[in-house]
Amino acid sequence: MGDQVVPSPSAVADHGIPTLAAVLEGQETRTNLRLLTSFPVKSRLLNDIQTRLIKLQRGNRCTLEIGLRTESGWHYLIGKVYSRDRADVFEAMKKIWESGLNQEAEFSIPRPVSYLPSLRLLLQEKVEGPLAKHLFLDRDLSLRADAAERCALWLTRFQALAPQLGKIMDVQRILRHSERRVRFIVDTGVPFAVKARKLFQLLAVAPPTLERNAMCAGHGDYKHEHQFLLPQGRTVTFDWDCYDIADPCRDAAMFVIYLERLALSELGSIRELRSASQAFLKTYLAAGQPGVAARLPFHKAALYLQEAKRDLGEQHPGWLGRAEIMLDQGLQAFES
To answer: pTM value?
Structure first.
């Protein structure tokens, strides 16, 4: 039987990810999987393969669901196709998985299956369950609080167990990135660029100190879109493209900021998820390392600047007002 592939026309047209068309076609993917001794499906692979587009970031990466028919039925994986070689993501996931964040644990990551270098394709377990994002958008405040607490506890567990891998996001690196972002904002000519300058001045004057041995494993993009909250309390965090080594509170600050952005875009006010943010921080600070609360304003302010720059660069609907709100929030982080 021939391949049964469901390609995305928009994905096929993305020449910035040169192996994507081959992944969608399916033949090379299937051939590689048949050679894997570690492939989790034990029954024999048949010819049928299906792909479904989940998310395309043009010129960078594409996330797909890959269905494989075997003698025992259909089995599904999540695949990520990159514009460049990212074998490092698979290796990082393996080490995190082996540290204790596996399918036996309450707090875990998807099982890494394989990396196919010729296709620049990362394969991982498909996890089924509700996303934390959907619970935060529910009007039930108890569901929001429970989701916030579980995401905070996942983060503390990850930081306690996971090995330190990837780039080091120390204060000096953050300040270099922040300086470039301010220049970008100023160059756009927006009337509130003075707020970006003031925010950077505050960042540069009193950066927090943190010994290298007090840094820990970082997710690097920790937000509500990257957690499955499964029954019986199991929490699974995915999307490991930005893994790093950082101040423990950087991921926590990021999570809070993305909750605010979710509230702003979906609920009409940045304050709509404040109780969820408070529940997250209360749980995280109670279980986290000492001194985190004192360094939180710096990392929040730097991330607000990052998001303002992103809004101005991407120019999605509402971008101008949202960018100014981010800068205002950054300034308020220092005032508080």
So the answer is: 0.92
